[in-house]
Amino acid sequence: MTTSSITDPRGIANRFGVGSNTPAFARTPILQPGTALPDGVTYLPSGRATSLWGRLPARDDAPVLTIEPGATVVVDTVSHEGLLPDQGQDPTRFFGAHGVQADAVLLDAIEIARDSARDAAQDGPHVVTGPIEIEGALPGDLLRITVVKLEPRVPYGVVSNRHGKGALPGVLPRSGTTVSVFTPVEERDGTLVGTMPLTEGGERHVAFPLAPFLGTMGVAPAEGGRLHSVPPGPHGGNIDIKLLTEGSVLYLPVQVAGALAYVGDPHFAQGDGEVALTALEASLRATLTFDLVPAADAREAFGELTGPLVRTPDYLVPTGLDPDLNVAMRNCVRASLDLLHARWGMDEHLAYAYLSAAADFDISQVVDVVCGVHARIREADFADVQSGPGRQTGASA
């Protein structure tokens, strides 16, 4: 199989139509399943046999891939936008209505929309690839997922506000049950940007930078049964933390033997809050490294983690989750206090004061049944803390 690509104006015309209002789509490859892969990589495609649509992998699901700790995997992820019943459940037709020709529509998206089981009344929208078994993972360990690389598979995506959901339920959308804003990706001044018009059908004068990340990264929960794909929890799942870009790390408490990790819900860009219901949803090829932090090392480095923890090049990012945003905020503050004490031995009242003076608490999202808040704690602020019991760098983590 060869890689489709957009390499010249004729290629753009062939794949995306022509006309005075046709966007100047970025000349990026169309990363169809199995194409343009480096030699020797471990590759996990999305599709009917390797993905779930609307549910998360459960403890009793057979892994679709088994790896050793430290392995790097290239995973193709698929956005649900353009696949859903309210969009016709035919991505070729849906994207074709926006000028995208058939060979620029992902084949795995077509397969999932056509063949994958999903109960539209009961299941979530997200396509989730996995589970991946990490050999030797045990409850109490931390799964460390490092985001090595994220590549757009197509130069377009969709932002949707549907079914009266979002931050303004019952107010927006005004025009019906589904609003899906097709959003081309263009290259402007050497940078990939999402583009939108100011008025429906107008020229695309609005441009915002891409910052790709995976909205869903998780492990199988201890309880039985496949969880709905929308609400996040201690298992991770649909946490929608936009800091999980290239170079970041996600720590998840392992709940079942083998961890049974999964990823999905790819985004090209998102604002904190994700207020309209979705971000710029679009398919990504993700290169991820899966490591284990043994339980004892995990406790020494971070204390008793009960939910997701993000690490960027600059910040430690504890999280708080709850259907009530106020409770999610309080949970995040408590998680931050516990982390400061466990990692650096900081007294509670001093940690509380530090958080108030120096840490930012951001709303991850308010649209996924369970709201999310995450804190940003600068590790550089603790660069002078000496190593020792309760005061260590957590190098093994």
TrEMBL record:
<dbReference type="Pfam" id="PF03069">
    <property type="entry name" value="FmdA_AmdA"/>
</dbReference>
<protein>
    <submittedName>
        <fullName>Acetamidase</fullName>
    </submittedName>
</protein>
<dbReference type="GO" id="GO:0016811">
    <property type="term" value="F:hydrolase activity, acting on carbon-nitrogen (but not peptide) bonds, in linear amides"/>
</dbReference>
<dbReference type="InterPro" id="IPR004304">
    <property type="entry name" value="FmdA_AmdA"/>
</dbReference>
